[in-house]
Amino acid sequence: MQINLTGNIFFDAGYYLFYHILNKPFEDKEFSPEEIQKVIDWMIQETDRWLSYLDSNTKQFKSRFIPYLANHDPLSHAQKAKLDKSEKINTFKEILLKLLTHCEVSSNNTCSICGQFETIKIREIDKESYGLTRVELPLSNFGVNFYPGWVRGIQTCGICALKAYATIFATLNSSGKVILLNSFSSEIMKIWIETTRDESKLSKYNIFDEKGPITLPISNRLNAIYSLLKPLVDEGLKKKLPPYVYRNIEFIYYSNFVNGPEIQFFPISHHIFMFFFKLKQNALLLKWNQFVYQFYTSNKIQYDESKQKLIITEKKDNREAQEEEYQNNYNILIEKLLNGKPLFKEFVKDKKLRIEYKIIELYILEVLKVEKERLDLIKQIADLIAKNIRQGDMKLFDVEDATEYFKFQRFLVMAAKKHVQNMGNPLFTVDDYVNNLIGDYKTVHNIMLIRLYELLADFITKQTN
To answer: pLDDT averaged over the chain?
Structure first.
C-alpha cells in the first residue's frame, strides 16, 4: 500500500519514524504488509520495554510517561493501581494490535487525517459508533466538544493511529514536557529522528536503560531548543544540505495533561542557521560558544573574566560551575537570539568588545540581514569619524549620546559639517544619508558604535587611565 505525509506533524513525525525503523529511502512510498508488521513489532517491543522500565521506577512515571499518554485510560493512575505489570502491558498491546487491523482503502468513511483509508469505528456506546478517543489514542480526548464537526472521537484510520503512537518515539522529553520538531524538509526530519533515537545520548546521560523518548537534562525550554540546533547544523554541513531546507523550522513544546494542556511554538529563523554555518566555515564557532557560555549566570553563578570560567561563589571557596549546574540558568543571549532581538548590548561591556569583531560582522550580515554594501559604508564613515575623534575634532560621547532619532540625525549633520571643514571632502552623500543611514537608525547607530569601540580601543584605554 502507498502511505503519504498528511501535513499534520503529530502524525507525520511517526511516519518519518517508519523510515528510520525500516532503514528505507524516503522516496519509496510503498509499504508492504511485512514492513508494516515490522513497524508494529518494533512499536510493541519498545512500548513493552518502556512500560516495564516505568513500572519499576514509579518516581519517573509522572515526568516520563504522563506527558505522552496522560489520558490513556488503561494506563492512567487509577487503572495503574488496579492492574499489575503484565496486565497493563497486555492491555496496551491489545489496543495497539486492534487498531492496526484497520487499513482498508476508504469507501465512505474517509480518515480525517490522511484522507486515504477507512475510518475506524472501534467502539459502540448507546448504539452509536465512536472513532478513536483518549481510550485508544494519545493526545486525544473524549467529549464531542473536542472534535471538529461535533463528532464522536477522532475519525482516523489504523495507519494514522500507528503514526500517532510512533510520534511518541520521535520526540524528546524535557522536564515533563514534550519537544517535537516540524519541518517541510524530509532531510531535516531525518536528522531530527536520528537525534531522538540516538543511543549515545542515552548513555551520555546515564539513562541507557530508560526506554521510550530520550529525556534531556535541560529543563529550561529555550536552552533546550538552542542545544538541539547543533545536530541540525553539524549534520547539515556533513550532508551538504542546501540552505532552503532550513526555512520554516519550528519546535513544538507541549504537554498532554488532562486539564489545561500547554503548547508553545518556537519558529527558528533560517538566518540563525546561516549564521552558524558561517561561523563553522570560518572556524569561529568555538569562540561563539564560549561567548554564549558567559551568559549562563545566576545569583550564585557569575562569569569570571580573568579565569574565563563560570564560578560558583560558596561560603568556603569558589569553584568552577559544572555543566549540569548552569545549563538551566536563564541565558539572555539565547533568549534574544531565538526571539529575534538584537544582541548589540551583549556584544559590548565598558566600551570594549566582548567578542571578536568578525563574529559580530557575521551576525550583522546573516542574522540582521544588513546588506554588505551598506555595512561597508557604515564602517567607512565610522573609520573617518574615528580619525576625527583621535584628532580631537569630535567626541566619542557625541556618538554614544545619539540614541534617539533626532539626536542621531543632528549628530550625522554635525559630523558631516566638521569633516568637510577639516578634510575638505564630504563624509557621505545625500543618497547615502537617505538610503543607508537614517532609515533603521538604531541598527546603524549600534554598528557605528561597535566599529568605533574596535578602532579606538587603545584611545579609550588611555583616556580611562
So the answer is: 82
